[in-house]
Specification:
Its cofactor is Fe(2+). It catalyses: L-threonylcarbamoyladenylate + adenosine(37) in tRNA = N(6)-L-threonylcarbamoyladenosine(37) in tRNA + AMP + H(+). Belongs to the KAE1 / TsaD family. Keywords: Acyltransferase, Cytoplasm, Iron, Metal-binding, Transferase, tRNA processing. With 359 residues, this protein is α/β, with parallel strands linked by helices. The protein has 2 domains: 165 residues, Nucleotidyltransferase, domain 5 (2-Layer Sandwich), CATH 3.30.420.40; 166 residues, Nucleotidyltransferase, domain 5 (2-Layer Sandwich). Helix content is 38%, strand content 19%. The protein is built from 10 helices and 10 strands. It has a 5-stranded mixed β-sheet with strand order 3-2-1-4-5, sandwiched between helices. Strands 8-7-6-9-10 form a 5-stranded mixed β-sheet, with helices on both faces. Strand 1 and strand 2 form a beta hairpin. The longest helix has 26 residues. The protein binds 5'-O-[(R)-(carboxyoxy)(hydroxy)phosphoryl]adenosine and zinc ion. The site of 5'-O-[(R)-(carboxyoxy)(hydroxy)phosphoryl]adenosine has 19 residues, from helix 5 and helix 6.
Length: 359
């Protein structure tokens, strides 16, 4: 099976082509093309993503990336737009959560392709290439399927990105129970806001972790660890962000590397502790970790140490670094599992849902 996937939920325009072969109960993923065009440079000067600019860029970039993806995936030799149908079995597209004007660009592009690429009458009774709507957060979870052995069910997933921080229980494919989530800011949002307070660039996560590495003194718990012992699986990062703000106000000469270090440590302590609490409560076989924040080196090593020491029987699947940020490869993996389960969507039913939740 070949899946074409499209992702435009935020400031990355992404298109991927994934080939999947099933042999004797084992799956082989062959990523034929993984096109990601980041708009960071455009949004950087505004200190965050501007939805209308993102929409305009997606519109401009999608046809360019499609051409490149189909060429690289050797799905079509002589590309012209609109084009004859390449050999794809389904088109997967992110329909939420995210910025609605940005999501609509990907959705409309996908619908347009489905209309232009009718399935040949020989292979079916006519109709369009089937569409699969994908939740962006499912994508962050399923990024872990692309490399190494697949995670086993039941599994716990920690998603930490710019818009979300969630612990999710999955008993089987495409089945999600949210155990807890942030009540205010997401972890990545806190990284971005604290970076701005420290005069660092956007996105803030990589900037903070780079600066924190320059601070060699062990931390002294300068900032609070919100809700760390709340007994549930919810998070809250807004108070931590405000604590940094007040500290900077009262200590304008404070060492910025020390603040970056302390803030990063506080955030990671909460993420690791809550994840460990959930692992203790739910008897899972695997822990899956994904989303932009999980590119953080310290978070990756802290989680892996914690699992090795306290949960040696649980297999840990952290998204490969190159799939932590937004991409369409992860959307293609979900697209495959949904297509296999015949979970297609009628084009008119796919609508952008900015606040879409896992269910
Ligand atoms: O998943 P993602 O690319 O987009 C969303 O779905 O939101 O996540 C982006 C977020 C940003 O807030 C960014 O600052 C954060 O991920 N991030 C990091 C790191 N790299 C990216 N946060 C902490 N440490 C990093 N190394
Ligand atoms: Zn994301």
């Amino acid at each position: 099976m070949k899946i074409l996937a499209i992702e435009t939920s935020c400031d990355e325009t992404a298109i991927a082509v994934l080939e999947i072969s099933e042999k004797q109960n084992s799956l082989k993923f062959n990523l034929l093309s993984n096109q990601v065009l980041s708009q960071i440079k455009i949004h950087k000067k505004f200190g965050g993503v501007v939805p209308n600019l993102a929409m305009r860029e997606h519109r401009k970039n999608l046809p360019i990336l499609l051409k490149e993806a189909l060429r690289e995936g050797e799905l079509i030799s002589n590309f012209q737009f609109p084009i004859s149908k390449p050999k794809v079995d389904a088109i997967a597209v992110t329909y939420g959560p995210g910025l609605e004007p940005a999501l609509w660009e990907g959705i409309n592009f996908a619908k347009d392709l489905a209309k232009k690429w009718p399935v040949s009458p020989r292979r079916s009774r006519g109709g369009q290439v089937p569409l699969v709507g994908v939740n962006h957060l499912e994508g962050h979870i399923y990024a872990s399927w692309l490399e190494n052995a697949p995670p086993k069910f039941p599994l716990l997933a920690l998603i930490a990105s710019g818009g979300h921080t969630e612990l999710v229980l999955m008993k089987k494919h495409l089945n999600y129970k949210i155990l807890g989530e942030t009540r205010d800011d997401a972890a990545g949002e806190a990284f971005d806001k604290v970076a701005r307070m420290l005069g660092l660039g956007y996105p803030g996560g990589p900037e903070i972790s780079k600066l924190a590495e320059r601070w060699k003194t062990p931390g002294n718990g300068l900032f609070p660890r919100p809700m760390i012992n709340s007994g549930d699986f919810d998070f809250s990062f807004s108070g931590l962000k405000t604590a940094v703000l007040y500290y900077l106000r009262d200590n304008p000469r404070a060492n910025k590397a020390a603040i970056a270090y302390e803030f990063q440590q506080a955030t990671i302590d909460v993420l690791v502790k809550k994840t460990a609490d959930a692992l203790r409560k739910y008897k899972v076989k695997s822990l899956v970790v994904g989303g932009g924040v999980t590119a953080n080196k310290l978070l990756r090593s802290s989680l892996s140490n914690r699992v090795a020491t306290s949960f040696p029987k649980i297999s840990l699947h952290v998204s490969p670094l190159w799939l932590c940020g937004d991409n369409a490869a992860m959307i293609a993996v979900v697209g495959y599992f949904k297509a296999r389960a015949k979970k297609f969507s009628k084009p008119e039913k796919i609508k952008a849902q900015g606040n879409l939740r896992l269910s």
